[in-house]
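re: ur question from yesterday

yeah so i grabbed the chain u mentioned. its 206 aa long if i counted rite. heres the sequnce exactly as i have it in my notes:
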Amino acid sequence: MTDGREPEPRQPDGESTGTVEALFTAPESGAPPESRDRVEIRADGIDGDRYRLGEGHFQLDGCPVTLVAAEAVDAVRAETGIDVSDGRHRRNVVVEGFGPEMDGLLQASVAVGGALLRPTRRRPPCAHLEELAGADGLASALSQRGGLCCDVLEPGPVAVGDAVSIREADPRSAGAAIADRLRERSHGEASDDTPDGPPGDRSHGR
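ran it thru and got these structure tokens back, copy pasting raw so excuse formatting
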């Protein structure tokens, strides 16, 4: 986990990297989360997890894989004294390196260990999570940093300590970056066409 300080969120520039800090699964709805050193991500979820087994509480709105930020877990502990580093946040993969909300990962393709995921939406906490965790105020504390719901683009193994990186930025961010580069290039070309001196002064060319 981190040292309690919140780093600046990394931008989806195709080079940002993070780390898998912890992995959790639960075999059925309401079962305590189990810490794992390594998991196998399949096309429909994680081996041994309730949602792949069809046992999740929110099965109709289930996520094959869920991420949560280590920075969010640290911030909740610092602000409220609630420590859910044991997995009571009920998210599968704890990721460090992209800020507490990880919004920069939304709609990007993200390499997590040997798997490739696409975070599609936020996964806000609910009263059920708070009840299972036995921690009043947890849902509120995690409201803007409750993690992300992911589709599986490519199955693969994931272990604690594996790298996390953005393979391709989401289309909106990529399009904005291209537009910025075009504006900078256009501005640079316009500057090159500007004379060095006032009109009529040719001394700079001598």
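noticed a couple things. DSSP finds four helices and eleven strands in the chain. also Residues 115 and 156 are 4 Å apart (CA to CA).
anyway ttyl
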